[in-house]
Every structure is written in structure tokens, then in C-alpha cells.
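Milestone M4 deliverable, item 7.
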Amino acid sequence: MINQLKLLANGINPKTGEVLGEKSLTNRPDVIRILFALAEELSSLENGSKSKLTPEDRRQKNIMQGRPPRSHFPWSDQEKAALASEFKNNPRIKDLAELFERSPLAIAVQLQKLMLISEEELDAYRNQ
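Output delivered:
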């Protein structure tokens, strides 16, 4: 089951091995995060360890896995406000991703939620 969740999170049909279409529910960032979290939780339960990582341990794990340091961290209201403010001064999503230690897609998702970019602009980051 863990492997099936990971396949779904990576956009692959676990039964057929085919890549799931763009419109698939599993292509949404929030669903991808949930699927990976479930797979990790099940893996922890199978291994008999259910230890929670500290925020710094999570940052280090992200870095070791080649992800931005704050990948999969929740956005605080203060961080969202700072993002909106920074976006007005510098609309380059790549620069904002570095500043907030997140992926360009994560930045684009938040900007779209804050209604600062359109769904079409967000889709451009999803398709990169």
C-alpha cells in the first residue's frame, strides 16, 4: 500500500503504470502532500517508530532530499502577508522561492490563493 500511495503522489496509476492526466486530482499540490504524508506515516507504523521530527530536523531532511528547506511546512498568516508584500516589490517567483525557502510551485500556489496571480499563471508552474 505504501508503494501505491507513493506512485499516486508521483502522478502514476499504481495498477497500470501510466502517467495520470493533468486534470487528475492527484496532480494537486495539497493532495500530493497528503499522499506522501500518508505513505510516510504508514511506513513509520510498519517500522514501529512514530517519532515526530523537529522543525529543524524536517529542514535538514528536506535539504538532504534535494528539496527547499521549508518544503511541506505550513504557511503562517505572517508568512503569507510577507509573501504578498514581497511580491508587490519583486514579482519574480524564482526570487521569492529562494527568499522563502520554498519551491517556485509552492510560491505560485500561495500567490494564487492570495489572488495575486491567476489560475493560468499557476498552471504554468504546475507544467514546468
